[in-house]
Amino acid sequence: MACKILIIDDDYEILDMLKILLEVEGYEVDTASNGFTGLEKLKKSSYNLILLDLNLPDIAGEQLCKAIRKNSELPILILSAKESVTDKVLCLEYGADDYITKPFQNIELIARIKAILRRCACNYGTEEEHTSILYYKNFIIDVENMIVKRDDEVINFTPKEFEIFLYLVRNKGKIVSRDKMINELWGKDNLYKWSRSIDVHIQHIRQKIEKNSKGHLYLKTISGVGYKLEE
């Protein structure tokens, strides 16, 4: 089944161009020319990815990104003419997964979309990393379905939290630097290195895996270096 993408942009020429481009790439595409229409479509249909323009006529794109993230963990790729690092970091803090500035090359947009969808599907490169079920202490990690269970109780990870936890499990017993984890999961040029989002995700993961652990610390912070998941 083809991945379904929702594009929210008030520029009809861009909507038409992106719709044709993505359909040629094999994606199913839906469009909305303003924020509230986009929200209504999200309520009625299921999507794999949202392309979101910041300059909308009815609601600021940053606020729409925040509203979507509050109720959904769908990956969001921001499209914007704003080039400052501050604007990019703000969008990441609001829950965006990536940010591309206009005008952009079609080949770069397609590459970013494929990268986001790969990450969300947890498709990694080696045969070992494609193992569908992993075990860590009393946790069972279903990689394909992005489910983590502890003693048959499902832990409600967001997709980003799952991706980070999976990375830590695959590197258990090792000290993983913050920068290395960001580079390997999101790429060397990703803006997460200037954002505290990764630290917030780590905090949430720690709270979830150490709940009812009677004070046992599975995930430790190594001051000034990074993190270590107990062997």
SSE topology:
Blueprint: E1 4-8, H1 12-24, E2 28-32, H2 35-44, E3 49-53, H3 61-71, E4 76-80, H4 85-93, E5 98-101, H5 106-120, E6 133-136, E7 139-142, E8 147-150, E9 153-155, H6 159-170, E10 175-177, H7 178-186, H8 197-209, E11 219-222, E12 226-229
Parallel strand pairs: 1-2, 1-3, 3-4, 4-5
Antiparallel strand pairs: 6-7, 7-8, 8-9, 10-12, 11-12
Helix pairs in contact: 6-8
Uncertain segments of ≥5 residues (pLDDT<50)? 122-130
How far is it from the N-terminal to the C-terminal residue, by CA? 38 Å
Physical arrangement of strands within the biggest beta sheet? 2-1-3-4-5
**Share of helical residues:** 25-40%
Structural class determined from secondary elements: alpha/beta
Radius of gyration: 18 Å
Beta-strand content: 15-25%
Question: Roughly what is the average pLDDT, rounded to an integer?
Answer: 85
* CATH superfamily (homologous) name of the largest domain: Response regulator
Question: Tally of extended strands?
Answer: 12
Q: Enumerate how many helices there are, as a single number.
A: 8
Q: Categorize the overall geometry.
A: elongated
Whole-number tally of structural domains: 2
Examine the coordinates and then state which fold CATH places here, giving the name of the CATH topology of the largest domain: Rossmann fold
**Architecture of the largest domain in CATH?**
3-Layer(aba) Sandwich
Main beta-sheet annotation: 5 strands, parallel
- Give the topology string: H per helix, E per strand: EHEHEHEHEHEEEEHEHHEE
Q: What's the CATH first level of the largest domain?
A: Alpha Beta
Pfam families: Response_reg, Trans_reg_C
Keywords: DNA-binding, Phosphoprotein, Transcription, Transcription regulation, Two-component regulatory system
GO biological process, one term: regulation of DNA-templated transcription
Domain Response regulatory: 4-117
